[in-house]
């Protein structure tokens, strides 16, 4: 291990505390075991096959991906891949069908068009592809709107000769509430989900898999009746947004961006070299105009971002950094920040302990 | 040229209309000639040496960069490089000093600490580095706050044996006004700048270079008395923000992101596969919650962004896209979007005509 390396490396740089990663994975593994849920982490957060391998070793039963590129990379370490994204377009389908034959592939979709294209591609490739019908349970992004639409689509899947109907999926990305307020929202979601499950079951289309789950709702997943599988992504790293809704504590944040203070001329402020190009310009769940906080000094907020500048607000601290001082920032949204870097630098007991290339970026 | 390639390529993809680029460069070249201004475009917008070469061929006298990586890449096509960023940190300085010896290097800085480090590095490398003292004219990001601070810093530069005092620089990124309201803001800025120029001149530190300029203020640069050089970046491509303040017209937008419609289940909305990972989540200058508009259909706005989803608001159009349809989005902020892609696909007369690798990303 190389303590000084953190002082010498080019900033901004993405850091991952592997001790915290281990603890985060143990915690979610224990939770899913306790509640009889399957765990299929979303790998878009880290985009790194070595970290998917850690999740599988900790008890994950498969992985979730958002892009074909992520599927291609994660297929090198896992034989059970869910593409939680409509597989629309020739290029997507061609590359999906070219995944290694031993990969059990499941795809989420919400339209007859996507279904038709996938069925044709699967038949031409001589491949069986599982399908989950995507439901909209209130996020209003993708997903069928009614139990009737779900039945129609699931029925068509069951008739598609290259396809296998495996169940339903949803994403409650709109539930960004403090843990104490989450209970009633989760029960409401559970009731809405039940209408879909009942209608499908009554039509002979009982969903074998009911897949949901996000990091903010992670620890209340057992409130959703009928859920069989969860797909938290951010949980491996956590971030300021996860802290803000109580889904983790500050000392469970495993991801940070190492930065250097480059200017202190404006009173009450220090400028670091981690801007939107390193942290990602993502609003907070519970505030606006704040993009991150210092690791170990959460009262120091990143209040403004240009591409190469992060503005630290010093109004709540007596700390006055010097030009050249190094700091670590926990961004609001870890996934979006990771996507901006080529490399994850790994820490063990606080010291540099290696690096992983972030190989599943792009599309 | 290959018309069909646009229909087949993986989406999202970054497109550059080279005919529009040519016209944009001709327009700014004519403006700077007319007003006797030097033109040093900021290459952070495109991060692509081939496009810097086009700018130089059109009449640019040098380039501006924000990172050492950009300096390294642009030094392969240009011998006059301004690093408009404080060169703080060992790694930055070591790599800067390793730029090819024929590169005339100038650096902007605002602190004695940055100055001391740079002087030491320059002397050790046996290199002369030019310095521009960075002023804060109201943006409150970086820059010395008063004429007295500017004199103190410029005086120290003049005494640094590895350095050469070349003048002053500022960035008015806070002036994001419609062209018709820009006049008085520019005059105010001009007056504030004059106090710095006068004080420096009275102290025997007359700035040879006075460098400013952004795309929103580009066409009023001649209102700023004493300005010798402008550094617009976005102007080569333009974007929705540049349109929103009247710095360009829609048909001067040369950059767009090709995307595929992947879902239309939510009424009044269509989902495309260009999300924050392709467009960048940057608020508009003149509105919030909007992240881009369709090329050729500016009434269709991108109203929500997840990492892989862009939500098109169909409330102002009778157009109803089908799943699989391809569209082109002009993002709010071109630079931030370009930084998310590996490749710029080039168009001539609307058809695919080649591609450039975006090689100056990262740090």
Automatic annotation (TrEMBL), chains A, B:
Gene3D superfamilies: Alanine racemase, D-serine dehydratase-like domain. Residues 254-348 form the D-serine dehydratase-like domain. InterPro entries: Ala_racemase_N, D-amino_acid_metab_enzyme, D-ser_dehydrat-like_dom, D-ser_dehydrat-like_sf, PLP-binding_barrel. CDD domains: PLPDE_III_LS_D-TA_like. Keywords: Lyase. GO terms for molecular function: D-serine ammonia-lyase activity. GO terms for biological process: D-serine catabolic process. The keyword Lyase applies. It comes from the Bacteria. Belongs to the DSD1 family. This is Alanine racemase. It comes from Corallococcus macrosporus DSM 14697.
